[in-house]
Structure formats: C-alpha cells, structure tokens
Amino acid sequence: MVKLNGKKKLRISVFISGRGSNLKSIIKFSKKKNSPFKISLVITNNKKAHGINFAKKNKIKYFFINYKNKNKAEKQIKAKLYKHQIDFICLAGFMKILSKNIVNSYKDRILNIHPSLLPKYKGLNTHQRVLKKNEKFTGCTVHLVNSQLDSGKIILQKKVRVLKNDNELSLSKRVLKVENLIYPEAIKKYINSIL
Ligand code: GRF
User: Are 141 and 156 in contact (CB under 8 A)?
Assistant: First the structure.
C-alpha cells in the first residue's frame, strides 16, 4: 500500500486481454481524490490488446506475459505483482483462468466483471445465450474470484433490459456501458469494506 497525500491507497493491477474499456473507466475513477486505490500495473496476455494504450497514455507500467506455458506465465505474473507491491487484482476482460496458486495468494483480493446476471450465464457468449432464451433482463456482475469460473461472492450487480430488436452487438454495447459504470464503483465499495 502507498501513502498518497497522507491517505493510503491500495495498489491495483488490472489484467486485460483486449479492448480495455473497463481498464479505461477504472483508471479514470482512480484519479479522483476520494478513490481508495491507484492503478500501479497492467498485465496482458495479448501483445496487441488495445487496452495497452490506456496504460501508455496514463504512464502506467504494463507487461506482456506469454501464456504458452501457463505455469511459467503465472510465475512471471507473481514476480511482477510482488515487485510492484500489488495489493489487489482486477480482471477486466482477461481471457485466462488463474490457477489456485495465484487465487490463493490473493484470496478475497481479486475481482472480475462478467457480462451477465450471475449466477446465470457463466462463461463465454453470454449475450448470445441470453437472446436465445428470450430473457427480459440481463446485466453485469462484479464478483470476487475463486478457483471456480465466475462463481465467487457477488459484490455489485446491475440489470439491463433486453429490448425487442436487440441483437448480440446492440445488447453487448448497452451492457458494456453499465459495466464501465459499475466496475469502479464496485472496487471502491469492496475496498472500503475491507480496509
Ligand atoms: C467485458 O464485457 C467483460 O465483462 C468481459 O470481457 C469484456 C471486456 O471488455 N469479461 P473490455 O476489454 O473491458 O472493454
């Protein structure tokens, strides 16, 4: 933890694999005076992840981790986390599943965002499945990460109405807007509850 302006702020690492819209909104929020956290490190398994640009723009350290060998990749990740004194991890579109080793080292200190109303629609292609089932509502969920996929304690959830003419793209865009709003709020809420 670092002391900024006399206040303690948790040092967060955000893990991404692609676009990085959630990373962008978390960085924006972290700059607020009353944010209990700062983004100290970005980790990606994808050299071409668009989200890396947000790290660059904001002068946040970022590292590409080659996942060809998962064990090796996680060892490298752990070394980076320790080196940069990371207190907390936020997964934001990170397309790899963390092993028990990392999950246990950061027990109750890893959050993820998922584009559905968990426990419904765990895993991939959520919007497609929601539309197929003619759901009236979907949404997004910020939850703690444990060793099972999309299954940890729910921290914050918000509903989004499915419209009659929605397709996967229109629905995913509306849900993403809500994701970008609730993720920083959920991080703040959770951190304040454990500090
Ligand atoms: C989001 O829909 C998130 O819920 C899911 O992956 C997507 C990442 O989007 N886990 P972005 O890279 O943050 O824009």
Answer: yes
Ordered mean pLDDT values, 10 residues apiece, the chain (195 residues): 64 98 98 96 98 98 98 98 98 97 96 98 98 98 95 98 98 98 98 91
Separation between Cα atoms, residue 29 and residue 36, nearest integer Å: 10
> How far is the centre of ligand 1, averaged over its atoms, from the C-alpha of 194 (Å)?
25
Structure-token match 């304690």, residue found:
153
CA angle 69, 73, 77 (to 5 degrees): 175
Q: Which of 165, 172, 111 has its CA nearest to residue 138?
A: 172
Q: What is the pTM of this model?
A: 0.96
pLDDT for 161 equals: 98
Distance between CA atoms of residues 178 and 172, nearest Å: 10
- Whether residue 44 contacts residue 12, with contact meaning beta carbons closer than 8 Å, is answered with no
Q: Which atom of ligand 1 is nearest to the CA of 19?
A: 12
